[in-house]
Design brief:
Menaquinone-dependent protoporphyrinogen oxidase, alpha/beta, Rossmann fold, oxidoreductase, Protoporphyrinogen_IX_DH, 6 helices, two-stranded antiparallel ribbon, 177 residues, Flavodoxin_dom
Length: 177
């Protein structure tokens, strides 16, 4: 199996997509083959040895298509390295860790993935979609709180873990127990 990495995202207003692109760019700098794709564009994860999945959080939930992605690929994800993140908190609470929604927690457990990492999000008038988002984007929640240093550091850790698993892998390509 090749060591390709998929970074898939579910984003409504673009902030989570931007985080996924930054993770992808960092992994490429470390020499990985990376596809960064909207989850809706992913039909098979067979080509990938590792998967990073990120969703925006809305009213404490993940985007439906991200949860569906986990459900659709649960068996294949069990045999791959998987990392999860979600992007949400903005404004004064931007550093608050967000819990995984119950459905996501169950699926993550099934897959054997560690809990999702929380990254702060973005809520700005220019990119806000929908009445409520536009309204909120005029108050103290407004702004781009994404922490690129934290995001890159996390991607560095993923790269190191992928490298380690490559070295641990026997030369015949089988997966060690
Ligand atoms: C209506 C609405 C509800 C939101 N609910 C949450 C929430 O429950 N938890 C959270 O951390 N962020 C919440 N946010 C903030 C968004 O998750 C944040 O803006 C995120 O970066 C958007 O990602 P996207 O641009 O990829 O869609 C909410 C934003 C809006 C507009």
């Amino acid at each position: 199996m090749s060591r390709n990495v998929l970074v898939a995202y579910a984003s409504k207003m673009g902030a989570t997509a931007g985080i996924a692109e930054a993770i992808g760019a960092d992994l490429r700098e470390h020499g990985h083959d990376v596809d960064v794709l909207d989850v809706a564009q992913v039909h098979s994860i067979e080509p990938y040895a590792a998967v990073v999945l990120g969703s925006a959080i809305y009213i404490r939930r993940w985007r439906r298509e991200a949860v569906q992605f986990l459900r659709n690929h649960v068996d294949a994800l069990c045999t791959r390295q998987v990392w999860l993140f979600h992007s949400g908190p903005v404004g004064p609470d931007k550093d608050q860790v967000q819990e995984m929604p119950a459905a996501v927690r169950r699926l993550a457990h099934e897959i054997g993935a560690t809990p999702a990492v929380t990254f702060a999000g973005r809520l700005e008038r220019d990119t806000a979609k929908g009445f409520l988002a536009r309204r909120l984007a005029t108050g103290d929640l407004a702004g781009d709180s994404r922490d690129w240093t934290k995001i890159r550091a996390w991607a560095d850790d993923i790269s190191a873990a992928i490298q380690r698993s490559t070295w641990d892998r026997p030369a015949d390509g089988t997966t060690p127990n």
